[in-house]
UniProtKB/TrEMBL annotation:
NCBIfam families linked to this entry: sopT
Subcellular location: Plastid, Chloroplast
Known pathway: Sulfur metabolism; hydrogen sulfide biosynthesis; sulfite from sulfate: step 1/3
Residue ranges annotated for the Sulphate adenylyltransferase catalytic domain, each copy included: 273-494
Domain of life, source organism: Eukaryota
E.C. designation(s): 2.7.7.4
Protein's name according to its UniProt entry: sulfate adenylyltransferase
Catalytic reaction annotation: sulfate + ATP + H(+) = adenosine 5'-phosphosulfate + diphosphate
Positions of transmembrane segments: none
Length: 513
């Protein structure tokens, strides 16, 4: 698959006026570009006096000073002092912070019990009927508890589930609408339902048997798997990874209720310091005095095409008048399909990208997004965008065929590769986001580097998909020079070498006769 990315731009100020600019044939190889920028008219009229001293050359050299980020504290990666930006006008007479975009529902949900109350909550949970969580269920507890799904406060009850399934949104009590495109539900079997009986609260148990949370004021309703699968993926074809892992073997009932997470979720895998909650991310953006935060989600290693798009995005933000845009490099950390590169390997590879200066460590935060992956295309990409709003990112880069995959039974893509960005521009509850489209990035064989695709010399470009990239590494082949930083590529090659050794060790011995 080729790489085509878009940026979702939320308005800098609430209540501002919508101004639509149309630009054609501009210099960054964009054939057509529509910027939907929300600016206060006073701000726009005084643009030159409001934002000054923008240096377009400080962060776009080919080689930026290396600085490791793969350490015990991902926040300690910069010492740059950034002056605050003061905006003029009625709606923006304040110091601009990265928390310009408010969480869905107006306030960030935090369902983790305070330290002083945890003992009592554990005692209470011990006395309740228990529901055992799967690994994916545990990841959803993490997601809900930290507020990624704000304003959702627990596993969905039936009315929330139906709104999500049929409308991709939730209607709040005040009449407002928030996007919610993926059902966040907890399945139980007949035996567990019987054991719960008339109880109104239940305890949730993790894989190791520890009490993780309490689910209160529960509601149990039928789990119509076929309807859920058809409406979420648009197909019931066999071979959908999330379906096979989490839905097919699940129980025939769903249990919803309000969640209380007994203590912060930990995985003890050496990466917990990178699992920054939305609250922590917002605090860090404010500490750095970011006036724009652009999030880039990925579940693959970072290649130079990704870096081109991220760096170009930052350059555009500077040209739009922002002074301190911060990149949130935000790899997905939950369930992924078996042939995807594991999280720990991806995190090591990402660290090499920053160490080699492909991305600037001083303007980048690397953190883990704890959500499991559905591979549900345009339906799922709405969830990815919504969750980053709750984390405080006011820009979102979206790629070609976001959250997509190949059809499980046919030789074609499951989703139209352009539908993800189109759906995001129309999705209910995401109206505050606007799309800034990029053209395709591919490998330019004449320049030996990743570049924006030029259709006038299409024969000069090589498209290297994530699948092709993984095949190169698995087979011990090197990609073209300039595709990925060498140290990052070495991480992938080493991983596949270890994997092959493990696979060979697991094969039964063949006795010679």
């Amino acid at each position: 698959m080729s790489c085509c990315y878009s940026v979702l731009v939320p308005p800098p100020c609430p209540g501002s006026t919508l101004i639509i600019f149309s630009l054609n044939n501009i210099s960054y190889h964009i054939m057509s570009l529509t910027l939907k920028l929300h600016f206060n008219l006073h701000h726009h009229a005084n643009k030159n006096t409001i934002i000054t001293n923008i240096n377009h050359n400080t962060c776009f050299s080919n080689k930026i000073r290396p600085k490791t980020i793969y350490n015990t504290n991902p926040l300690i990666i910069t010492t740059r002092k950034v002056d605050s930006i003061v905006m003029q006008g009625e709606c923006c007479n304040m110091v601009i912070k990265s928390s310009l975009i408010e969480p869905d529902g107006g306030s960030l949900v935090d369902l983790v019990v305070g330290e002083g109350d945890r003992g009592l909550k554990k005692v209470e949970a011990e006395s309740l009927p228990k529901v055992k969580l799967s690994k994916i269920d545990f990841e959803w507890v993490h997601v809900i508890g930290e507020g990624w799904a704000s304003p959702l406060r627990g596993f969905m009850r039936e009315d929330e589930y139906l709104q999500c399934l049929h409308f991709n949104s939730l209607r709040l009590k005040n009449g407002s609408l928030v996007n919610m495109s993926l059902p966040i539900v907890l399945a139980i079997d007949d035996e567990t339902k019987e054991r719960i009986g008339s109880y109104s609260n239940v305890g949730l148990i993790g894989l190791d048997g520890d009490l993780v949370a309490i689910l209160r004021s529960i509601e149990i309703y039928k789990h119509n798997k076929e309807e859920r699968i058809a409406r979420t993926w648009g197909t019931t074809a066999p071979g959908l990874p999330y379906v096979e892992e989490a839905i097919t073997p699940a129980g025939n009932w769903l249990i919803g209720g309000d969640l209380e997470v007994i203590q912060p979720i930990k995985y003890n895998d050496g990466l917990d310091n990178y699992r920054l909650s939305p609250k922590q991310l917002r605090e860090e953006f404010d500490r750095r005095k970011a006036d724009a935060v652009f999030a880039f989600q990925l579940r693959n290693p970072v290649h130079n095409g990704h870096a081109l798009l991220m760096n170009d995005t930052r350059k555009r933000l500077l040209e739009m008048g922002y002074k301190n845009p911060i990149l949130l490099l935000h790899p997905l950390g939950g369930f992924t399909k078996a042939d995807d590169v594991p999280l720990d390997v991806r995190m090591e590879q990402h660290s090499k990208v920053l160490e080699d200066g492909v991305l600037d460590p001083e303007t980048t935060i690397v953190a883990i997004f704890p959500s499991p992956m559905h591979y549900a295309g345009p339906t799922e990409v709405q969830w990815h965008a919504k969750a980053r709003i709750n984390a405080g990112a006011n820009f979102y880069i979206v790629g070609r065929d976001p959250a997509g995959m190949g059809h499980p039974t046919e030789k074609r893509d499951l989703y139209d590769p352009d539908h993800g960005k189109k759906v995001l521009s129309m999705a209910p509850g995401l109206e505050k986001l606007n799309i800034l489209p990029f053209r395709v990035a591919a490998y330019d064989t004449t320049e030996n580097k990743m570049a924006f695709f030029d259709p006038t010399r299409s024969k000069d470009f090589l498209f290297i998909s994530g699948t092709k990239m993984r095949a190169y590494a698995r087979n011990g082949e090197n990609p073209p020079d300039g595709f990925m930083c060498p140290s990052g590529w070495k991480v992938l090659v080493n991983y596949y070498e270890r994997l092959q050794v493990e696979e060979q060790a697991q094969q039964p011995a063949v006795l010679s006769t």
